[in-house]
Write a structure and sequence with these properties.
single chain; 5 helices
């Protein structure tokens, strides 16, 4: 009689453990799927913003989009905010041709967003153009 009760208790424990294991497994799978979908959404948003900035630059400065973005970033005819977007786009594209211009504008000092290009954005763009880790590099821009 005692062994029958023990077997039932053991059976319920293993059944409960199996259910809990399934729930945890599905939960982890859901989290990974959600993170992957969020990552893809962010990547495509970045891609879209780079294309938009490139189109704006090439509309005003015909030719190659890298050269157009470089000219746009250096132009006093645009607000610092717009020029910083061009710097960001150059970094996201990661083309080495932008390095000379980016490094020329980079002082390494604190940011003064009212009077000059964002030093932090320049630093990030330089790093990406030198081959730094870019999580969205696999996407064509």
């Amino acid at each position: 009689m005692g062994s029958i009760i023990e077997e039932r208790i053991e059976s319920k424990r293993s059944s409960s453990f199996a259910v809990a294991k399934k729930v945890v497994g599905y939960g982890i799978s859901f989290c990974f799927a959600f993170l992957f979908i969020a990552y893809l959404a962010i990547c495509f948003s970045i891609r879209s913003s780079v294309k938009e900035m490139s189109a704006e630059a090439t509309k005003q400065y015909p030719g190659d989009r890298i050269e157009a973005l470089i000219t746009y970033a250096n132009s006093e005819n645009h607000s610092l905010r717009q020029r910083n977007r061009a710097v960001w786009a150059l970094g996201q594209i990661g083309d080495e041709r932008a390095l000379a211009t980016l490094e020329k504008s980079y002082t390494g000092g604190p940011c003064d967003h009212d009077n000059s290009l964002c030093q932090r954005e320049l630093q990030k763009a330089i790093k990406l153009c030198k081959g730094g880790l870019n999580a969205t590099v696999w996407l064509p821009r």
